[in-house]
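pasting input
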Amino acid sequence: MEKSLTWREFIITRLIQTSGYSAIVFVALIFFFLLREGLPALAEVKPSELLSIRWYPIENYFGILPLLTGSLIVTLGAGLIAVPFGIGTAVYISEIAPRWMREILKPLVELLGGLPSVVLGFLGILVLSPFLRVFLNLPTGLTAFTGSLLLGGIAVPTVVSVAEDALDAVPRAYREGAWALGATRWQTIWRVTLPAAKSGVLTAIMLGVGRAIGETMTVMMVTGNAPVLAIKLGSLFSPVRTMTATIAAEMGEVASGSTHYHVLFFIGMVLFLISLGVNIAASSVVFRARKRAERILS
Amino acid sequence: MKRALISFLLAVFFVTACGPASQAETASDSQAKYIENKGSDTIVNLALAWAEKYQGEHSDVRISVTGGGSGTGLAALINKTVDIANASRKIKDEEINQANANGVEPVEHIIARDAIAVIVNPENPVSQLTLKQISDIYSGKISNWKEVGGEDRPIVRLSRETNSGTHVYFLETVLRLGSKEDKTLFSTDTLLLPSSEGIIAEVRQNPNAIGYDGLGYVPKDLKMIAIATETGGAYVLPSIATVNDKTYAIARDLYMYTNGQPTGVVKEYLDWIISPEAQQVVADLGFVPALITNPSP
């Protein structure tokens, strides 16, 4: 009896250890694969060409700047929409809504997060883009703004769940202390609860932004995929082409090992590094806040 | 020490369980014969109709048809993952070089003809353009409908993605007017939509839009532009008649490429495709039956 228990403990421990380590191994393997297939692009295409402003791979124009700016402007727009709506909803759910409303709202927000992005893209082409074309008097409704609206909608559930958990974790004593000092509900939320949950809320925002920058199907269907350099304010209301849509649309046609193939992997590498950067920034904020909290409490 | 040994044995067991993947089935299997057919989205509906008809008559053959664009199909032929690649454009020299480097010898078969219709919103008053005007619109030189006789509206240019044979054909025949030395490109703000459906949906509801697509894909409610090959020439709408007598400027052959001369099941299938029975399917779907000027070798 004793012996078989030790056996089982041993195997289970090892299995759990393997699963834990495997996450690191998989990420490292993916990164090395991207490096192996993407770095030859730097050898085959001159860096000055890679940073040019024309993307037309079938005639060997491999300038990735339009794609980079396209992704960034759509993500920025999505962030500007997801952050106020997401944080606002999280504050409402955790601080203001009555219990019965919270029970309804939370599952509904989770449901919005479960919508497949392809379905949202479909709605975007058929409903949102004609509406925006008429409402904002644009030449076409397939713009970065349409993409940002839909991406904001996709990112909001992520922001809401993480931010709402962070706000819930703030000790009740903080709020009671503020009320005891005579602060109104809004003053408490704005000046006590939110700053106390700052690290969690920032993580929520970073995760939402990370989700937005990696989204593919929705942006491929509604942003128009025009490789324009998107640096003016008006570019938000013009068609753009994101890095994700480029990879999705063109990966099928490339012959394995060709220059186009390597450049697409290079773009994948850039995307990976951006997501990694966003996640590291989010973790470091949390880490610093925790260290500060530990110092204060000790 | 004993625990380390057991962990090692478990690890070895798991690693050896992941053996090499078995080789893909070849078409010379005992029971059913397989044909893999991939490529142009323009041809995909036609290829599907053919495959269904052929499989109905020959129950021992299984044909799998996929789209993805002419570029995708030819890349698959070069990678030796398909038997027949559908292409709505001729294979490029770079692709022939890549194929030869991989031991593949692409052989071309013309299986039908297609007209590219230029479409605009039904509310658009413009109904005829010269080829040069269309070229200037798409390269960015003309940006407002009033410059070609329409209303004062910005022109929104729609196109297929770069992996589409239709896109490449349009680039060579319309933007570059057939000249090999011309290096004109699509204007950067051309919207590259991933499918014909996207173009149709946008043209249908946007009065500023102009797009192009194969004749078989244009629904009745959209307006086709009559095109004059030369300034001052006659304006011609696309149809089977105008493609066959060569008065419509933007007509092209549709191809199937095989690795080397076809043999066995693939040869029978291709021979059937250029028979009158299969070419009737071509006409039913809105394409133009291939002119059988040279019998296939």
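fyi Chain B has ten helices and twelve strands.
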